[in-house]
Amino acid sequence: MLILLTFYEILKNDSKIFEFLFEIPKTYNPSIYTYKIAVPYNGYFEINYEVLEFSKLSSNDVFNVAREKVFELERKASIDVDYIELKINPYYKVNDELYIRNKIKFKISFFYNDIQTNQNYNPNHREFINFPFPKSWIKSRVFSNSINFFSNAQIWIKIKIKDRGIYKISANDLLNLGIPQNLLIINQLSLFAKIDTLRSPIIYADSLVKQVPIYVYDENGDGILNNNDYILFFGEGVEGFRNINGTIKFYRNPYDNYNYYILAIGSNLQPKFMIEKNLSYNQIVYSIGIFRHDSDIVNTGKKGRIWLGEEINYNNSFNYNFSLDGIVSNSGYVEISLVGAEPLSPNECGDATLQIILNGQVIDNNFQTNSIVRRTKSYNVSYLQANNNLTLSIINSSCSNPKVYLDYFEIRWTRTIGDGSVYFQTNASAKLTNSALMVLDITNPYEPIILKNFSDNVYPNSIYFIANEFKTPISIEIINIAKNLYELSNVEYIIVGPRDWENVLSDYINYRSRFFPVICGTDFCMDSLSFHNVKYVAVED
Q1: Following DSSP, what letter does each residue of 64-92 receive, concatenated?
Q2: What is the DSSP string of 187-216?
């Protein structure tokens, strides 16, 4: 910013008007000049300018950036100040000749309601060229206190799942963990999704923990979870298809191999139960089936998955057999994504032409790839069947050793309505032709709706889940809060490091420090603190 001090001169700066003179230096820099100017967050502003001096340029170095518009602006916001980025373009063309605006006078008028405030400027505010500006333009920083869910219940149960499904937890499951019967009051049960592991635009940004509805079977209606009673909830898997921004798209949790739900027992939070709907439309139609194949390694250490596509070269075609359940039509949709390899030697490259064959029929003879570039193509096909074969082969290349990697391929077809996830891409009417234990509308997986009789007018990109069985979680366990990570009122800092450091750090801190710290191993700390409404980054040992 100090460099720009030679490029302008402040003429006036008060609470209502800011004027400055933009002046091209003698040795001009052929670029666009950008300035940050603070503006009132509770008002608006107007910009006027006057070109005071211009001249013709003999050089065409900046011919391509020359514009009629003198400036462009973009309104932005920092953590406590709204501002504009004013981008001044002094160059313009007249009849293919280049000119420069040497001097431009800018006048910015501010209109706002003045509010008394005791806010202080911070050093970063000096980056705005109209500093100092009125203190009332500084927004009060609002830090929402993390909702400490762990103070709102007596016992917390961590539920670990992997696949999408309707999960069942019985009264005996909880009693076997040693939970007293008198705490299993149905109206004091609440379930939360740990949504930092269920990433999607559907997710609300206000918290990392979202309450989700449950269904409780209370056999004798006594309001206590006992005997043959059980809890059902819809659990989202680590990968699958979801309604994302109004379109059914593939998703995968790249950070963990499992998803987690948290059951609060003895909770003073408002319980949330699934809504039930009775539906009566009788027309039978078919749904959309979706099959996807890709390859990636198992996530290690919660550091993210590493993608490894399946290699295709002159000596190794991709050949894959797959089945489509409930197929009722040979018409469908195929999408294929390929990535060219990085050229690591003169003979290697990712520039190739591939042939795509589905069930013996050539659907593309000219799928071209480039090095380290992903290309995706889609096809409407008419020869799908119950058992299928897809072959991808390199038929031409610009080098002797071409390599291409399959990112994924996806098939969508018309199928009978069966168990599992059911997708609709068009307006339709649907009815389940066989019995099911439970049917849910899971278009929003955090607000599933029970359909007592699956017979519904469905809409584009709606998703249902039909369960012929209830799933059992991989594990359920009482959350150990012995380390008291959830009561941080007196804690002044947290040390995160490898578990092996804990004893050494404890001795050192107790001896050297007057502060009260909490020390925890990386995996335990990240896993525990992620229940809070905080932002954190991955930590490696």
Answers
A1: GG--S-SEEEEEEE-SS-EEEEEEE--EE
A2: GGEEEEEEGGGS-STTS-TT-SEEEE-BEE
3-state secondary structure of 112: strand
Q: Is residue 428 part of a domain?
A: no
Per residue in 434-490, pLDDT (tens digit) is: 566 777 887 778 788 887 665 555 555 677 777 778 899 999 988 754 444 444 444
Look at residues 440, 458, 405, 430 and name the one whose alpha carbon lies nearest to residue 164.
440
Residue % of the chain over a pLDDT of 70: 67
Kindly provide the residue ranges of all beta strands, DSSP E only, lying in 120-164, ordered along the sequence.
155-161
- Omega prior to 180 cis, within 30 of 0: no
Residue 298 token pair: 């198992």
Indicate whether 249 and 348 sit together in one domain.
no
| Same domain? 231 vs 154 | yes
pLDDT tens-place string over residues 316-349: 899 999 998 878 888 888 999 888 887 878 888 9
DSSP state of 185: B
The residue assigned the tokens 């059902």 is 232
**Domain with 297 in it:** 289-415
CA 477 to CA 330: how far, in whole Å?
Answer: 47
Of 204, 258, 241, 525, the C-alpha closest to 408 is: 241
Its sign, for the CA torsion 197, 479, 191, 205, is negative
pLDDT in tens, 82-91: 888 888 888 8
- Of 427, 426, 432, nearest in space to 412 by CA: 426
Q: How far apart are CA 402 and CA 392, in angstroms?
A: 14
CATH number at residue 105: 2.60.40.3800
pLDDT tens-digit map of 374-430: 888 989 888 899 999 999 999 999 899 999 988 889 898 877 765 555 655 444 445
